[in-house]
Amino acid sequence: MRFFLRRAVFYLFTAWAAITINFFLPRMMKGDPVSAYIASNQGRISPEAIDSLKILFGLDNDMTLWQQYIQYWGLLLHGDLGRSFSRGLAPVTDVIGAALPWTVGLVGLATIISFVLGTAFGAIIGWRRGSKADLVVPFATFFSTVPYFWMGLIAIAVFASSLGWFPASHAYGKGADPAFTFQFIGDVIVHGTLPALTIVVASLGGWILGMRNMMITVLDEDFVTVAQAKGLPQGQVLWRYAARNAMLPQLSSFALSLGFIVGGTIVMELVFSYPGVGKLLLDATTAKDYPLMQGLFLVITLTVLVANILADVAYAILDPRTRQLEG
């Protein structure tokens, strides 16, 4: 309990710091959302509307910075992240909510598949070190060094343009009406297969190499030798003793990967014209849509924190020594 309380206090402080920085950062930048919105409308806004916009964006000149900060927290606790002027003053929560499922569904699923396959293959290759299984490592490492955009372009050229197996872009076919039907879901799966495979192939090598190296280290530990001396089945020694301890460092990397899922793979989403959060963040930056950028940064930051909390919990469950040291 002491371990979890310590971690909870640490992450609550980190969340407060992230939210506070997220409040002050746009106000320290040159310009403000209202000025950018006026410039985008070429001055077709009355002075009364300008004052209303400043109140809408929490930049009321009649309020002190502290009052704006308190108001920001009040709106945040009510789930109000402001208005996106590049999206017709639509609520930021609605804009992010429309793009978030696409990124989580694509990048999240691809990351989990890559982690599971890479960790399993790395454990087996490390267990059979010195055998022909080691030949997988150079090929996997090579693919992990290829940039996302280059691999995506190659995948489009081969599997979309030449072979015609998969669509080259977008999340679903043009003219299709989004609906929870088998036809639309199948269309989404077909469009998402190529970018998902690109992410899996590009990130698989890192998981394999990391797990293999940790397995080689763990196999020299005494508890593995004792387990083998007891005559336990090889599969049990591999997965319950060696792999369970070797995958602990993998969990930290996996937690960070899960956290950055919300940020999306910006380059991949651009290459495949995928309507995810990464592309939305780039569009918001190009349009200088400060409220939308602020909302996206906040969601990404909090997601990384939640992912790290889950990693700490999993780490403590798998390795009791962590709880003892923290306690």
Largest sheet: 2 strands, antiparallel
- How far is it from the N-terminal to the C-terminal residue, by CA? 8 Å
- DSSP summary: helix tally: 15
- The CATH homologous superfamily of the largest domain corresponds to MetI-like
Average pLDDT taken over every residue: 78
CATH architecture of the largest domain: Orthogonal Bundle
The CATH topology of the largest domain is given as MetI-like fold
Strand order of the largest sheet: 1-2
List the uncertain runs. Answer: none
Task: Count the domains.
Answer: 2
Strand content: under 5%
Question: What Rg, in angstroms, do the CA atoms define?
Answer: 24 Å
Could you explain the architecture of this structure?
With about 325 residues, the chain is mostly helical. The chain has two domains: about 1-90, no CATH class; about 100-320, MetI-like fold, CATH 1.10.3720.10. It is about 75% helix and about 0% strand. It contains 15 helices and two strands. A two-stranded antiparallel sheet has the order 1-2. Helix 5 (about 90-125) crosses helix 8 (about 180-220), helix 6 packs across helix 8 (about 180-220) and helix 14 crosses helix 15 (about 320-325). The longest helix is centred in the middle third of the chain and has 37 residues, at about 180-220. It starts with a helix and ends with a helix. This is ABC transporter permease. Belongs to the binding-protein-dependent transport system permease family. Keywords: Membrane, Transmembrane, Transmembrane helix, Transport.
